[in-house]
Design brief:
3 domains; two-stranded antiparallel ribbon; two-stranded antiparallel sheet; about 50% helix
Amino acid sequence: MVYVRMTSYSTRITCHSATLIDNIFVNQFFDRSRSGLFFTDISDHLPIFSIHFDTSISASNESVFVRDVNQVNTTKFLSHLERIDWSQYATFDDPNNAYNSFFKQYSTAYDSCFPLKKTKVSNYRLRKPWLSKGLLKSIRTKNKLYRQYLTNQSLHYEIRYKNYKNKLNHSLRIAKRIYYEKKIDASKSNAKATFFFSHIFRISSPYGREHFYFSILCVNLILSRFLTY
């Protein structure tokens, strides 16, 4: 089985070096395949992507086929793997034959336990509802400045990017606070919802993300016991 590398761009760029660390390998290449980088500062490595256009599949805006992944099928899949005698691969002399046999057996089990199901395409919903169109535009501008900084590696572009980023982060924090303040105000008549949103609002707790999730869990448990008393 032959694999083709889809990426050829440096994914970690600093003022001293540019290295290709992250890769995407595929075993089936289409003529209209495209790959590239996302210039965003969510990590010190640039995220990579690969898009494949298969002309043998008819495009549809109404439905797509996805794997039916759920707890029942996952348990079934794990049980199936446990019943396979994996020691048989120790007898192979050729590692390529061993891998091809393993891949075929594993893929057969996966396809059997996670069958394809037809589902309707739903519209994308923003996971952070406090992001306005203006803030989204500002995020795109920040990413463009970040790209300029990585491409030119000059002090001018670095200062320009970091100043814009700091101002944007400040605006994002304010927008998030206002969003949850409105949620809390709108749920004054619901004690459970009020406590829930007030603790989400404390996500910037100095004790870290773990403390935030633990607070949410404890508050929900206490409120559930209190409201059923």
